[in-house]
């Protein structure tokens, strides 16, 4: 087999993507669909799930609140039944969480961020791993972290705390599941162009009482390449990590960020 042929994931992989109906998750779902994977997406937004299923025939999906274990158990049973097994889990669902000084943060908003970003990863993993152990297709877990999972992020402590925790979860599972031939990696996107990032910039600009344009420029100045990355950049990394070219890549926190120097 030519090395170039190793770069595309095998056709027919059975893939579950959380938060897969919008943003980075949707672009990852589209990418796997394009290479012939069987894709199941789950998301809290029912209309977005329906739109993805309509736009990409053969893609399947359901509605779930990832922060509620009973919901996750139900959706995973449905997904596994429809797919007939599982080769790849992309734990992507997450929220930005609140912005503000630690002493001013709302406790409920803190708890929601932990539940959605971190607890959900455990809920899906606990259901997925038994099926991944049965896979003969280079089984793989992708945990979506963030550049905020390797750097301090003032005024965004709930979000950063979950993203650091996800890296620790990934590192531990890579050791635990390696003997079962299951690879585990984390992708750490940086400043990703799009509406969500615009909202994050706007919230932080308000917290610091400066203009949106000034805050955006501050973000770009922290990036070595002086540009944002795209959702397609992140999806391309997910495909590479799921390909045969990455069969010995595990336990890695891989930044796709243009080298963000500080936050």
Automatic annotation (TrEMBL):
- PROSITE patterns cross-referenced by the UniProt entry: ADH_SHORT (PS00061)
A Pfam family recorded for this sequence = adh_short_C2
Entry keyword set:
Oxidoreductase
Q: Which molecular-function annotations from GO does this UniProt entry contain?
A: oxidoreductase activity, acting on the CH-OH group of donors, NAD or NADP as acceptor
Cited SUPFAM superfamilies: NAD(P)-binding Rossmann-fold domains
Question: What is the top EC class of this enzyme, as a single word?
Answer: oxidoreductase
Highest taxon listed in the record's lineage: Bacteria
In the UniProt record, does the keyword Oxidoreductase occur? yes
Q: Fetch the InterPro entries from UniProt.
A: NAD(P)-bd_dom_sf, Sc_DH/Rdtase_CS, SDR_fam
Its Enzyme Commission number? 1.1.1.391
Q: Which family does it belong to?
A: Belongs to the short-chain dehydrogenases/reductases (SDR) family.
Q: What is this protein called?
A: 3-beta-hydroxycholanate 3-dehydrogenase (NAD(+)) 2
Q: Which organism is it from?
A: Pseudomonas fluorescens
């Amino acid at each position: 087999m030519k090395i170039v042929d190793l770069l595309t994931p095998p056709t027919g992989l059975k893939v579950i993507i959380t938060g897969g109906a919008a943003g980075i998750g949707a672009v990852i779902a589209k990418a796997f669909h394009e290479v012939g994977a069987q894709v199941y997406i789950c998301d809290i937004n029912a209309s977005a799930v329906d739109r993805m299923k309509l736009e990409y025939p053969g893609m399947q999906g359901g509605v779930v609140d990832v922060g509620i274990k009973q919901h996750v158990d139900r959706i995973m049973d449905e997904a596994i039944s429809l797919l007939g097994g599982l080769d790849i889990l992309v734990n992507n669902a997450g929220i930005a969480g609140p912005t503000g000084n630690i002493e001013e943060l709302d406790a409920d908003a803190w708890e929601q961020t932990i539940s959605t970003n971190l607890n959900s990863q455990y809920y899906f993993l606990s259901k997925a791993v038994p099926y991944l152990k049965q896979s003969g297709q280079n089984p793989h877990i992708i945990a979506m972290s963030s550049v905020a999972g390797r750097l301090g992020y003032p005024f965004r402590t709930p979000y950063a705390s979950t993203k650091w925790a996800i890296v620790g979860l990934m590192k531990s599972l890579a050791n635990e599941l390696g003997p079962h031939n299951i690879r585990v990696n984390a992708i750490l996107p940086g400043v990703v162009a799009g509406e969500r990032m615009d909202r994050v910039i706007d919230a932080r600009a308000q917290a610091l009482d400066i203009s949106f344009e000034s805050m955006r420029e501050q973000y770009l100045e922290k990036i070595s390449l002086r540009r944002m990355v795209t959702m397609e950049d992140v999806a391309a990394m997910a495909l590479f990590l799921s390909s045969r070219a990455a069969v010995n890549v595990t336990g890695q926190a891989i930044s796709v960020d243009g080298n963000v120097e500080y936050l």
